[in-house]
Design brief:
Cro/C1-type_HTH; Lambda_DNA-bd_dom_sf; Transcriptional regulator; 434 Repressor (Amino-terminal Domain); 283 residues; single chain; 2 domains; alpha/beta; Endonuclease, Chain A
Length: 283
């Protein structure tokens, strides 16, 4: 669990404890509040210590039971604040990959300039249907989520229509490792690399490759996106992080610009891709 997420839970728990202790009719003990809420008293301390995430229903009931109904809106805002920024894969994929892709489609559709970095897989906006199908299948197996692979692929391909709309810019950098990762069978990967070479020169796409031989100023860590300087999105195995604060956005743009210094473009990028393409077919 992310440190920011846990800190937010602890802060919310401290506020809940304050409401319990400042009950207008007198300080409530944990067991007394539990009796009012109809729950085991251990839940009270788990919530107050940040060891359990409260639900919206928990917060409404807590505000009423402690005599502070006016605090309901504040508590719900706190919950929405940290839950909307830490989007667990378990919750997001409970209905499959297609809804996640459609949410991304909506977000990208209102974006004019995208900065993206991928270190281990081909950028989603540039994936072929076959490559994307293998990606969704692997992650559905990992997360044990509903198998809606074909629907998810179609949703991702609809997003790619934005690549051809004038007035947008997709500034994508990938590490060379992404070109070699055998997340799919060799024929599918070869076709994927063919598509990449076709993207070079498209006026809406600026595609850079960081070769294995490049000198790096920083490590090639997790993939991320910055959308219109208003939102940074990165992901880990447990969750996506959606970050809207100016400091985080500036940090990710700084990382992107630093990685860009090691990237090659145009004919040099095509050479790197073609080298990877030839390695797939070599004995």
């Amino acid at each position: 669990m992310s440190t920011d997420y846990q800190q937010a839970r602890i802060a919310l728990g401290a506020r809940l404890r304050e409401l319990r202790e400042l009950c207008p009719t007198g300080k409530l003990t944990g067991p007394q509040l539990a009796a009012r809420l109809g729950c085991v008293h251990s839940k009270i301390y788990k919530l107050e210590n940040g060891n359990q995430t409260a639900t919206a229903e928990d917060l409404r009931a807590w505000a009423e039971a402690t005599g502070h109904p006016e605090a309901t809106a504040e508590l719900l805002t706190r919950l929405a604040g940290f839950e909307s920024h830490i989007r667990s894969w378990r919750r997001q994929l409970s209905s499959g990959h297609r809804p996640v892709q459609e949410n991304w489609n909506t977000e990208i559709a209102r974006t004019k300039v995208i900065h993206g970095w991928q270190e281990s897989v081909i950028e989603g906006m540039l994936q072929t249907a076959d490559y994307a199908r293998h990606i969704f299948t692997r992650y559905a197996e990992l997360q044990n989520s509903p198998r809606d692979t074909d629907e998810a692929v179609r949703a991702r391909l609809r997003r790619q229509e934005l690549l051809y709309q004038p007035g947008r810019k997709f500034r994508i950098i990938m590490w060379e490792a992404a070109l070699h990762a055998r997340i799919c069978p060799p024929p599918a990967l070869a076709a994927q690399l063919d598509r990449l070479t076709g993207m070079i020169g498209l006026d809406t796409v600026e595609l850079g490759i960081v070769p294995f031989s490049a000198s790096l100023k920083i490590p090639t860590a997790n993939g991320f996106y910055v959308l219109d300087n208003r939102l940074a999105i990165t992901e880990d195995w447990h969750a996506e992080l959606w970050l809207e604060d100016a400091d985080s956005i500036a940090l990710y743009l700084n990382v992107w610009n630093t990685l860009r210094e090691s990237a090659v473009y145009g004919a040099e990028a095509q050479n790197v891709i073609n080298r990877a393409r030839r390695s797939i077919c070599s004995p």
